[in-house]
Every structure is written in C-alpha cells, then in structure tokens.
Amino acid sequence: MFEILLEAAIIIGIVCFQGYVFLQNRQKINRVVSLYPDKKQLWISKEFLNASGNTAQEVKNNLLPAQAEKLQLLEQGKKFLFLHTPSEIHRVTNLNNRGEQVEIRRTVYDGFASNSETYYIPYIRLVNLATDNEIEFVGLKTEPETSGPPLPERKRNTAPEIELDLIAAGNCSREFLEILNDTNNYLRNNKGAAADFNILKDISERQSEVLEKEINAIVATPLYVGLLGTFLGVIFGLSGIILGGGVTNEAIQTFITGVVVAMVGSFFGLLLTLWGNTLFKNARFIRDRHQNDYYTFLQAQLLPRLHSDMAGSLSSLKAVLDAFNREFLDKVADFKPIIAGITANIEVQKNFLQKLEEIGYDQMAKASLQVFDKVTQSTEEFQKFLGYQQALNQSLEAGAGAAASVQSILERLTGFERGINNVGQYIGQHDNLIQKQLDFFGTHEKEMADISAKIEQYFDQAAGRLTELMDARMRYLEQDAQNAYERWSNHFEALNRDNIYERVVQYLEPFKKLNTQQDELSREINQTQRTLLQKMDRDAETQARLLRQLEHMNQNLDKVTQPGMLKKLMDKMFK
C-alpha cells in the first residue's frame, strides 16, 4: 500500500511538472503567434540624417553648451532670423514630437507691410540651425564670453539632409522589434543603393527559426516525462514482487495498480504533447500568414520606393551628364574663333617661312651683318662729328676772344676821344695834325668794321653749313636706325610667333584624343545603364515569381489546414 501511495505521489509530481512544461511551451507558442504583427500595423516612416550620416539624437548629444542653449531657445519658439535675409522672421510653432514635420512660421516684412506663411522642416535641420552662426535671435542680446577657451568657429551647415525610408510598426512583439532594428540598420547602411529582398527575408527568418527551434526542443518533453513515470511505476511494481516473497495474487494486484497509476502520467504526457503540437501547428500557420503579409509589405511598399530612389539617382546622373555634354560643347564652340585666329596666325607664319626660304637664310644673315656694319660706321661718323664739333667750339671761343680785343680797342678809343675833348685848346692849335689823325683813325675804323662784318659773315656761313651738315647726318642716321629697328622688330616678332605657335600646338595636343575619350565615356555610360536596367528587370521577374510562389503556398496551407472531422473533435476537446 505504501508503495502505491509513493508511486501515486511521484506520478502527481510528474504530472505537475508536465503541466509546468506545457505552460512554458504554450507561452513560447503564443510568442510565435504574435511574432509578426498584422499588416494594418505596418507603415513606412521617414528618417533624416545629416551629411555625415548621424541621426538627430547623435548630433544633439555632440552639441556644445552654447549650441545646446540655442537649440533650447529654438524649441521654445524664440523668434530668429538669418543674417543674409534680415527681413524674414522665423519662429517654431509646433515640434510635432521632434519628427519630420517641425512647423515653422515665417513672416516677411516689406516696409510697413508683412506677409506670413507656414513651412515644415525635419527636426535634424532644426538641430543643424543650432550650430549655424548665420542665425540671430530677435530681441536677445548675446554677450561674448570673457573666460574659458574660445569656441571653435563652425562654418554654416548648408549640406542637405539625407532622407531614409524605414519600417515602423505598432504593438509589435519584442522579437519583431529586433527584426525591425536589424532591418532598419541594414537600410541605413545601404542608403543610396537598391535593397536586396533576400537579405531582408533572411533577417526576418532568423528570429523565427530561433524561436521555432526552441519550441521543437521542448514540445515533446511532457511525453518523455510521462514515459519516465510509467517506467518508474513498472520498476516499483516488479520490485515489490521480487522483494515481497514471490508472485502472489496480492503482489500482482499491487503491480497492476502501480502500472495503472504510472500510465496516468503517460496519458497526461501524451495528451499535453498532442495539445502542444496542435497549438504549435496553428501558431505556425498564423505566423506564416503574418510573415507572408510582412514580405508582401516589403515587396509592395518598401522595395518600390528604394528602387525609385535608385532610378532617381540614375536620372540625376543622366541629367548631370547631359548638362556636362551641353556645357562642354558650348566651351568647345567658344574655342572656334580662337582656333580660327590661331589658324590665320599659322598661315601667316607659313607664308613668312616660305618667303624666308625664297629669300634665303644667307641673304637674311648678310642683311643682319650689313645692319651691324652700318651701325658700326655710324658710330665712327659720330666720333668724327664730335671731333669736328669740338674744333668748331674752339674756333668760336677764339672769335669771342678777338671780339673782346676789338671791344677793348673801341673802349680805349672812346676814352681817347674824351681826352681830346678835354684838351680842346690843344686841338685848336694843332687842327691839321688832329684832322689827319682823325682821318687816319676813321680809315682804320672802317677797316675794323669791315673786318668785324667779314668775321660775322664767316661765322654765319660756317654755322649754316654746319647746321645743314648736322641735319643731313641726323636724317641719315635716323633713316638707318629706323630701318634697323624695323628689321629687328620683324625678326623678334617672327621669333615670338614661332614660340606662340609651339605653345598652341602643345596646348591643342590633348584635344586630339577628346573625341575618342568622349566616345569611350558614352559607351561606358550606356553599358552601365543597360546593366542596371537588366538587373531591375531580373529583380522584377524574381519578385513576380516569389509572389506566385507565396500565393501557391498560401493555397496549399489553406488546403492542408482545412479542419476534418477528427480535428474538429480534437479542437473542441482541447479548447
């Protein structure tokens, strides 16, 4: 009797343990059911990053104290303006949970009139405004700091924000939240490129497989524990027969009673295992349906947006290349008059070289030597002219001395005349003698006047001949100098034109391969576009096949899971 009670106590403990394991397993099965949310609770959300790829919270955490204070003033709705447009006043009117639609009201003042309008910006742009030195708050006087190290000067942040399409869900499970975080991290790191559906599917299925393997590992535990209780009951019954003195009716009755009690544990183990498998199968059916809805959401809502972003990038690239081609053709067209001028200059150079060949380089060298000989001869003539001029200057100095002597004689004659006037009485006595002396002096005075006139006439004639000779010599020298200057100028211009021609030829050398390089670039661009279009067509075909396979799988699941009579009875019994 004691053995039966002991066995009954052990079986009750086993059944309780089976119930505990079943409850734990059922909780995990419920997690499988709620792994994926309903498709109505899924949507596409926007997320904005700065040019460095940081989120608004990351940028906000790295703000300096002065910038954090400026951001707080902006969030409080303090009026501010941009220094480059001081006639516009801005003010934040609604943060909208610091999302993608921060409402700002702008008032434009034109004299005494004003006009107001509302616009929206993402929150990260508002954070960037806190780091912008080009804004100033209205009615708030900022004083410079007098202590501490100077703040680093930051340039104005004019780079556009990066817009990302991410997945969001409401009332989702902890496992699906991890799926969303991994998927969104992949989309953030893969920004600017086409997303791969297989990668998104793999991220989703890993969480589901981990949970499913965990349930499969313990779903049959109640059955194994029940079998353990049955074996314990048989062992206890056989031990009682062996140790009780042999096979008796009482011993057999005790053995059968123990086996029946032990079979209760196996019954509950089998029942709970069958119930758990049924719940697990239904949970997987619901999970697969929600999972297919999630995959359909990815293919119908998310991937087209990412592909459209890729197509937009390609369109932008095509527009940039078209603009580059147009601008390049315009620049090449601007070179036409320059090239025409260069061609004319080359033609002139060609004609000059032909004329030079016709004349002969020897004659050109002889002409240059003749010019140098003329310059040398002119130098010698200049030396002779300088000697002649020095002799003329000496003659003029001698004439000036003779004139000074004559002037001295005339002065003495004047003094003598005054003396004669003073001795009039003596003159009266010797009138005849004085008259003869006067005649003599008068005769000599005329001769002196004639001599003076002849000297002046001689100097005038000499000066005239000298002037004519100097003018003729100057004209001759000027003509020779002009001829030499023209020849040297032509020679140096020819040398300069030759140098310009060489530089132009060197500059135009890279343009010989311009058409070839442009053709190669056009072929590469066309090949890249064809490759991308083919890949997009293949992706579209793959998505279409996946949709058909999912529809076919849903139909098979509906057929497989249609309840039969036995299943209906089991569902009524286990619910």
From TrEMBL:
Report keywords, A-Z: Coiled coil, Membrane, Transmembrane, Transmembrane helix
Entry coiled-coil feature ranges: 511-553
Any transmembrane segments, and where?
6-23, 223-243, 255-280
Q: What is this protein called?
A: MotA/TolQ/ExbB proton channel domain-containing protein
Organism placement in taxonomy: Bacteria, Pseudomonadati, Bacteroidota, Cytophagia, Cytophagales
